[in-house]
């Protein structure tokens, strides 16, 4: 396994918005982390990138093992060498990664110069190659443009090129297409999937969109209120979901063949990190709740297959 | 069934003339015509910049059209005086995408719900009873009466937005991406609420969205826009005839890993509304493009009595649109 996260707990002051999160990912694989606002999926990504201190949080417990090295407790200097190099991040809003005052091409060069030690002209050649690879038309012209001269889809391609410039092994993509139009989203998702398969990368795809998950991921971890409630192969998640939350989430998506009025919303709302209920955090909204659910926190149990579910009431997988 | 809303050759251009800029004309909405029957839900779909939000504001006459007219319940809105227009607006309401900016942050829920009555000068017998019944109508706890917007979740705020829109008992509600900033489970709640309210209050909806999957689920009829023009009007269970609608449909990610497909890659991006091409605006990205498409604008033509497309080369076999159910049956019959 290239990356193994185990028992990850994240603390912000007195709160733990992420608790006991575990998953792993290998080269050539796409792992989807899916959840709604407040599920802790983006914080998990932030922890993997070693960026928690920048947002005021810290790892309270657990390990984040990347290729044999535990990233938790690693010195900032060593983290910086990994970040943008062997581990790269793609964010939702391209402008959080791009410098508005600088042409986009040289911004792609930076990672290659920093992490691969290339000189100016070699880095430029590499950037142009990456841009062509991402199907950016006329790379030599686009290289000299500023971010504001590019469309949203083009900017996101530049951000992907920046992430690839340091020759990463692990890509962490946090809602990479959420801000884009549907036809552009389809293009970008396709590009990301091709990259992973062709270059043998590992990608953690963080998203709220079950459609994107179904079309791209190999394995899926479903998060609710800071915990992984279910983890399985993508087909198992959609066809054989065991956790009542996963089941309910799938029933919330409008499908082509559904009749109007047949979509079944989940009653109630997601509690904030300050008000996580005791026991199973989904219990106040769960149709199968029992007394045990109100008191005991269910742990993620894995049966014979690698289908894990954290529920007292689910049938064993 | 009579038409509640009739839009006739509606256009809007914006002129951009800065002090040091060249004068430029932006074509936001061009030659849009359609009707909406009472009790129906019309979905307006398109990507950013296609003019769908401008269309909504033109219909409500929050902005003036450059050409064309809007008829609401048989009344030409251009013929109304300001006072008459204000009165008519009670019957047509707008729900915004962003529930965070639609409510004054200094207003408590109660003030926000009573604001429409104040604006229209409607006297209430009991303000408390009105607030309580509005909250109940949208499924909110009466305990929220004295809360401020920042104390509410996104879904709760959108419910307040809907309650405000329904306060004056309108006939037409224009919903501009009402669920775009919400989580899926909250979206499902809001859509279920809108559906229930439509049935119980006999409302007519104009539902604007970028999500074709959601529109196909929720709406009776779909209007697809591209660069300010209608490219297709169709029943929501029909198959698209316009290659752009087809591409939109192919770009939506079905939540089914067994139905994975290579998405027909649509190259290029939407042209600029400052300088629309002379022919079909989709020509540069269209897989079925011909020389004719680049020079001549295709008119919106009927394929059936309920299906129109603006395309020189509509997708074959679509003259009699096949429903999704029919296709499923046909495909499942194949061994």
UniProtKB/TrEMBL annotation, chain A:
Q: Provide a Gene Ontology MF annotation, just one.
A: ATP binding
Localization annotation: Cell inner membrane
InterPro entries for this protein: AAA+_ATPase (IPR003593), ABC_Ni/Peptide_Import (IPR050388), ABC_transporter-like_ATP-bd (IPR003439), ABC_transporter-like_CS (IPR017871), Oligopep_ABC_C (IPR013563), P-loop_NTPase (IPR027417)
Q: Which residues form the ABC transporter domain?
A: 3-250
- The superkingdom listed in its UniProt entry is Bacteria
Q: Which GO terms describe its cellular component?
A: plasma membrane
One GO biological-process annotation of the entry reads: peptide transport
Residue ranges of the TM segments: none
Q: How does it sit in the membrane?
A: Peripheral membrane protein
Q: Which UniProt keywords apply?
A: ATP-binding, Cell membrane, Membrane, Nucleotide-binding, Transport
Looking up NCBIfam families in the UniProt record yields:
oligo_HPY
Family from the record: Belongs to the ABC transporter superfamily.
**PANTHER family reported in the protein's UniProt record:** DIPEPTIDE TRANSPORT ATP-BINDING PROTEIN DPPD, OLIGOPEPTIDE TRANSPORT ATP-BINDING PROTEIN APPD
**What is this protein called in UniProt?**
ABC transporter ATP-binding protein
Protein species of origin: Phyllobacterium myrsinacearum
From TrEMBL, chain B:
Recall the taxonomic lineage recorded for the source organism: Bacteria, Pseudomonadati, Pseudomonadota, Alphaproteobacteria, Hyphomicrobiales
Question: Known Gene3D superfamilies for this protein?
Answer: P-loop containing nucleotide triphosphate hydrolases (3.40.50.300)
Give membrane topology per the record: Peripheral membrane protein
NCBIfam families documented for this protein? oligo_HPY
Q: Which GO terms describe its biological process?
A: peptide transport; transmembrane transport
- Supply the alphabetized keyword list: ATP-binding, Nucleotide-binding, Transport
Subcellular location as annotated: Cell inner membrane
GO molecular function list: ATP binding; ATP hydrolysis activity
Q: Tell me the domain of life.
A: Bacteria
Q: Which SMART domains match?
A: AAA
**Protein name per the record:** Peptide ABC transporter ATP-binding protein
Tell me where in this chain the ABC transporter domain is found.
5-252
Instruction: Tell me which PROSITE patterns the record gives.
Output: ABC_TRANSPORTER_1, ABC_TRANSPORTER_2
Q: Which family does it belong to?
A: Belongs to the ABC transporter superfamily.
């Amino acid at each position: 396994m290239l990356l193994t996260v185990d028992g990850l707990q994240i603390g912000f002051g007195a709160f733990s918005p992420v608790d006991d999160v575990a998953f792993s990912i290998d080269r050539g694989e796409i792992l989807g982390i899916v959840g709604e606002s407040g599920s802790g999926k983006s914080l998990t990504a932030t922890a993997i990138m070693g960026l928690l201190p920048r947002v005021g949080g810290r790892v309270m417990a657990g390990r984040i093992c990347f290729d044999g090295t535990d990233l938790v407790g690693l010195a900032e200097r060593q983290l910086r060498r990994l970040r943008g190099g062997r581990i790269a991040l793609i964010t939702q809003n391209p402008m959080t990664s791009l410098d508005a005052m600088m042409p986009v091409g040289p911004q792609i060069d930076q990672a290659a110069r920093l992490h691969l030690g290339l000189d100016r002209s070699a880095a430029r050649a590499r950037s142009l190659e990456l841009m062509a690879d991402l199907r950016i038309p006329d790379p030599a012209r686009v290289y000299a443009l500023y971010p504001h001269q590019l469309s949203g889809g083009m900017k996101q391609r530049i951000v992907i090129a920046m992430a690839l410039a340091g020759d990463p092994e692990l890509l962490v993509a946090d809602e990479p297409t959420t801000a884009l139009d549907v036809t552009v989203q389809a293009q970008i998702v396709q590009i990301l999937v091709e990259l992973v398969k062709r270059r043998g990368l590992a990608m953690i795809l963080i998203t709220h969109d079950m459609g994107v998950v179904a079309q791209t991921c190999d394995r899926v971890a479903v998060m609710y209120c800071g915990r992984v409630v279910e983890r399985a192969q993508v087909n198992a998640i959609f066809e054989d979901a065991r956790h009542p939350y996963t089941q309910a989430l799938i029933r919330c998506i409008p499908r082509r063949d559904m009749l109007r009025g047949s979509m079944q919303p989940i009653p109630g709302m997601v509690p904030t990190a300050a008000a996580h209920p005791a026991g199973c955090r989904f219990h106040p909204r769960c149709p199968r709740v029992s007394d045990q659910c109100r008191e005991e926190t269910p742990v993620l149990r894995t049966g014979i297959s690698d289908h894990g579910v954290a529920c007292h009431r689910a049938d064993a997988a | 069934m009579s038409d509640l809303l009739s839009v006739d050759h509606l256009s809007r251009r914006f002129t951009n003339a800065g002090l040091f800029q060249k004068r430029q004309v932006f074509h936001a909405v061009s030659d849009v015509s359609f009707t909406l029957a009472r009790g129906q839900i019309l979905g307006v779909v398109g990507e950013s910049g296609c003019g769908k939000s401008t269309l909504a504001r033109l219909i409500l006459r929050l902005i003036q059209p450059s050409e064309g007219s809007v008829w609401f319940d048989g009344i030409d809105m251009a013929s109304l005086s300001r006072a008459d227009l204000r009165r008519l607006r009670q019957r047509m309401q707008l729900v915004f995408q962003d529930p965070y900016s639609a409510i004054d942050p200094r207003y408590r829920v109660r003030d926000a719900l009573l604001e429409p009555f104040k604006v229209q000068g409607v006297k209430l017998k009991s303000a408390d009873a009105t607030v309580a019944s509005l909250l109940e109508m949208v499924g909110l706890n009466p305990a929220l009466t004295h809360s401020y917007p920042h104390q509410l979740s996104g879904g709760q705020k959108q419910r307040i937005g809907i309650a405000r829109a329904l306060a004056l008992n309108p006939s037409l509600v224009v919903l501009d991406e009402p669920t775009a900033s919400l989580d899926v489970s909250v979206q499902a709640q809001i859509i279920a609420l809108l559906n229930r309210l439509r049935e119980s209050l006999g409302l007519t909806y104009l539902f604007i969205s970028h999500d074709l999957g959601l529109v196909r689920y929720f709406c009776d009829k779909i209007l697809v826009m591209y660069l300010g023009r209608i490219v297709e009007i169709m029943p929501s269970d029909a198959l698209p005839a316009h290659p752009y609608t087809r591409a939109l449909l192919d770009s939506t990610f079905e939540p089914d890993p067994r139905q994975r497909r290579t998405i027909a890659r649509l190259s290029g991006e939407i042209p600029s509304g400052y300088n629309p091409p002379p022919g079909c605006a989709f020509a540069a990205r269209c897989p079925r493009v011909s020389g004719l498409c680049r020079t001549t604008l295709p008119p919106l033509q009927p394929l059936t009595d309920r299906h129109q497309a603006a395309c020189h080369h509509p997708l074959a076999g679509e003259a009699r649109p096949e429903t999704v159910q029919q296709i499923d049956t046909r495909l499942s019959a194949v061994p």
